[in-house]
Write a structure and sequence with these properties.
By secondary structure, the chain is an alpha+beta fold. About 20% of the residues lie in helices and about 35% in strands.
């Protein structure tokens, strides 16, 4: 069996824990590979193919990075928290014995939480009229927001061919249920159970009191089209990573991805315990 480690290389504790895990796993006959990073000594990008388990050592940002590496391959991801929030992770060293958690994961004794993903397409054109497109993957969300050169953005929201509204404001977030506790929540959206497979659409600081967040069905397609009457240069981020394009953005299309991300935890109650801990400050005995 092969285990793939994705640590936060900026946190010494996470790297040291990864080194200890590599030694422990090696003694048990597991092959271990590490994700490449600009702070690591790994020169090439290791091959994740053939991995049976991915272990994220860091916070939620590190887990999102692990999810980007895995993509739609549906390799189980175990998140060990060395971050500030750790909402998506299964456990932290303060709460559980790390080796015990990894043993449970390898033995198949942990709950598998299927998380819907987003397939995001960004359509744009050059000054010469040449059309371009970028395809991206998201576990959390896509955010279209006003860029540094605009005071607001104006756009139309369409769901599966049905026009919802034309909005002006700071932008819009389209998230999965997993991402509902991230940027979408900060923009005023609801907390959604991870079992929900549709999308959460939340306007960011709209210039109207009538705009509201709404949920879609799993089969819906959300399209954000930039207004030609009020041209602007939006910033587009997918799971917190900016989508770089030198072209003029025309529209962004988001739909459910063709595969899910598999997160390991200790049961459905893990989500509600995390909601209680992170957003209400209530700590539960494990």
């Amino acid at each position: 069996m092969k285990v793939f480690l994705v640590p936060n290389y900026y946190k010494n504790e996470a790297v040291e824990s990864g080194l200890a895990l590599e030694l422990w796993l090696g003694r048990r006959g597991y092959d271990v590979a590490w994700a490449a990073d600009q702070r690591s000594a790994i020169a090439s990008v290791p091959d994740i193919e053939g991995s049976d388990l991915v272990i994220s050592l860091g916070g939620d940002g590190t887990l999102l990075r692990a999810a980007r590496i895995v993509g739609y391959q549906e390799i189980p991801i175990l998140g060990l928290s060395y971050g500030h929030v750790g909402f998506l992770t299964a456990a932290s060293p303060d709460e559980r014995d790390v080796l015990g958690v990894v043993s449970d994961a390898l033995a198949g004794e942990m709950h598998v939480s299927r998380r819907a993903t987003l397939a995001v397409e960004v359509f744009s054109h050059t000054d010469g009229g040449e059309e371009e497109s970028i395809d991206t993957f998201a576990l959390n969300d896509m955010a279209l927001a006003r860029g540094p050169l605009s005071d607001m953005v104006e756009f139309d929201v369409t769901v599966s061919g049905h026009h919802i509204d034309r909005l002006r404001g700071d932008g819009v977030v389209v998230s999965t249920a997993t991402g509902s506790t991230g940027y979408a929540l900060s923009a005023g959206g609801p907390i959604v159970s991870p079992d929900y497979a549709g999308m959460v659409c939340v306007p960011i600081a709209p210039h109207t009191i009538q705009a509201r967040a709404f949920l879609t069905s799993p089969s819906d397609v959300v399209e954000i089209t930039m207004s030609r009457e009020r041209p602007s240069v939006p910033a587009i981020a997918v799971d917190g990573q900016f989508v770089a394009t030198d072209s003029i953005v025309d529209r962004v299309v988001a739909r459910r991805g063709p595969g899910d991300v598999l997160l390991l935890d200790y049961g459905p109650e893990s989500f509600y315990n995390s909601v209680s801990r992170v957003f209400y400050g209530v700590h539960h005995d494990r």
